Give the backbone structure.
Amino acid sequence: NNILDGIQADYVYFSNYSQNTTNADQLNGGISIVGNNNEIKNSKIGYSSGTLINIDGSSNRIVNNVIHNGSYMASYDPLVKLTSGTGNLISYNEIRDSGRFNLYWRSGSGEISYNDISNGMWLSRDGALIYSWGLDMGNSDIHHNLIHDSKGTDMSVGLYFDNYANNVVAHHNVIYNNDVGIQMNTPGNYRLIYNN
């Protein structure tokens, strides 16, 4: 039940630790929400070698923020990471400029809506602006986002449901200036993709 409103958080974490695809410091070094019913709104959060906002709880809200310039390691620690929980909301944000993913879905369910998500994958070749793999997404809803200008050198994707990513609805998104708009790898079930 905490609210961060109108903050400016710059250079929230930096490390030159470069082993493995993820590590706890890279993930938790920014703003880490470990709990329920918290909100970050009307804020500017930028610059991290890892994650800027990590969500590890339920019914949290990330609304009307500028979230930018992170994931310098180009690891599995993106600008915004859904680590666990249900019913989280990420809406009306500008989420831009990431070494790898802008938003990475590791576990749980939520709503991703009305965001401008752009300029990720600057330092990586396999991933997307919004990426998930190996999880039940719990009928999560991804809608009315602008998803554009993925910069990956090999496979530049906007919205990517990788192997074993199940139970998601993606609709009414505008996806452009990517080599691939939407990628769905197998196996994967119960993905409803329409009106994008």
User: Anything to note?
Assistant: Residues 24-28 form the longest helix (5 residues). The helical segments are 24-28.
